[in-house]
């Protein structure tokens, strides 16, 4: 058997998330269907670096899979890419050691959340950006984002469906950047994120940006470990998994 790592991009709008489930179309299902066809009907299973929720996009999702024999990686990438549906692209494929695991090898992830702040929504970004007019406290929002950086127990930003007990994570960088007159980009990098953590942090930062809460609200939520103190969960369509970087210095996007 030969193990391969692939970088996958997808528009999450019409998917019920990354992971296969009983009802709803998923990214994993589509990828495995194509790989099984390319393997003459031998069932191929893939493992992803993580599970994006329904409606969440990706430009740098990483998966790995095993094939029965060695393949030319560019020919494999081309065949894989051209047979996936239009809302999935296979950006790169490389052979890796059998010990590589896309989920369990130590890595850092970067997510980006897009906000549109114009008076009226932009129809061209409606699938990838959340419309939030009247963000009047950008400086306070930036100050709040800075308070998320570090190693914390993020229970206060975790959705009720989270199954892991250890909710301590390290966030290495959070940026809030005005990319144009009507667009704001929020970027989060860290060693892992809890269920809906990024979207809950975004919902809280939006409350700060609207002038409803001070930046110090972030510290209060972290200290109290109370989800009820945080803002609402931001919609999925504004979120994108940008890259996954493994700690062996192999950049994967």
Keywords:
disordered C terminus; PsdUridine_synth_TruA_C; 10-stranded mixed beta sheet; single chain; EC 5.4.99.12
Number of helices: 5
What is the first-to-last residue Cα distance?
Answer: 25 Å
Q: How much helical structure, as a percent, in the residues? A: 10-25%
Radius of gyration: 19 Å
Main pleated sheet: 10 strands, mixed
Chain-averaged pLDDT: 95
Strand content: 25-35%
Detail the poorly predicted runs.
249-253
What shape does the CA trace take? globular
User: What's the count of strands?
Assistant: 10
Order of helices and strands: EHEEHEEEHEEEHHE
InterPro entries: PsdUridine_synth_cat_dom_sf, PsdUridine_synth_TruA, PsdUridine_synth_TruA_a/b_dom, PsdUridine_synth_TruA_C, TruA/RsuA/RluB/E/F_N
Enzyme class: isomerase
Domain Pseudouridine synthase I TruA alpha/beta: 6-105, 144-246
Keywords: Isomerase, tRNA processing
Write the layout of secondary structure elements.
Blueprint lengths: L1 E9 L16 H12 L7 E3 L8 E11 L5 H11 L4 E9 L10 E10 L13 E2 L6 H9 L3 E4 L14 E13 L2 E8 L6 H13 L7 H8 L14 E8 L7
Parallel strand pairs: 3-10, 5-6
Antiparallel strand pairs: 1-3, 1-4, 2-3, 5-9, 5-10, 7-8, 8-9
Helix pairs in contact: 3-4
Pfam family, one: PseudoU_synth_1
EC number: 5.4.99.12
Function: Formation of pseudouridine at positions 38, 39 and 40 in the anticodon stem and loop of transfer RNAs.
């Amino acid at each position: 058997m030969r193990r391969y790592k692939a970088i996958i991009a997808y528009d999450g709008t019409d998917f019920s998330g990354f992971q296969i489930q009983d009802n709803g179309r998923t990214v994993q299902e589509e990828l495995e269907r194509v790989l099984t066809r390319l393997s003459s009907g031998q069932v191929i299973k893939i493992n992803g670096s993580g599970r994006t929720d329904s409606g969440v996009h990706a430009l740098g999702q990483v998966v790995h899979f095993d094939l029965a024999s060695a393949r030319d990686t560019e020919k494999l990438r081309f065949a894989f890419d051209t047979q996936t549906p239009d809302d999935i692209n296979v950006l790169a494929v490389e052979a890796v050691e059998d010990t590589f695991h896309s989920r369990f090898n130590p890595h850092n992830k970067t997510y980006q959340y897009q906000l549109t702040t114009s008076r009226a929504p932009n129809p061209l970004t409606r699938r990838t950006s959340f419309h939030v007019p009247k963000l009047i406290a950008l400086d306070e929002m930036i100050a709040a984002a800075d308070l998320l950086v570090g190693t914390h127990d993020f229970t206060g930003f975790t959705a009720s469906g989270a199954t892991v007990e250890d909710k301590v994570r390290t966030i290495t960088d959070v940026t809030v950047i005005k990319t144009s007159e009507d667009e704001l980009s929020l970027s989060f990098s860290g060693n892992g994120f809890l269920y809906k953590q990024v979207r809950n942090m975004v919902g809280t930062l939006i409350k700060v940006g609207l002038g409803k809460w001070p930046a110090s609200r972030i510290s209060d939520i972290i200290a109290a470990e109370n989800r009820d103190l945080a803002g609402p969960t931001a919609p999925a369509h504004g979120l994108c998994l940008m890259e996954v970087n493994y700690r062996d210095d192999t950049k994967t996007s």
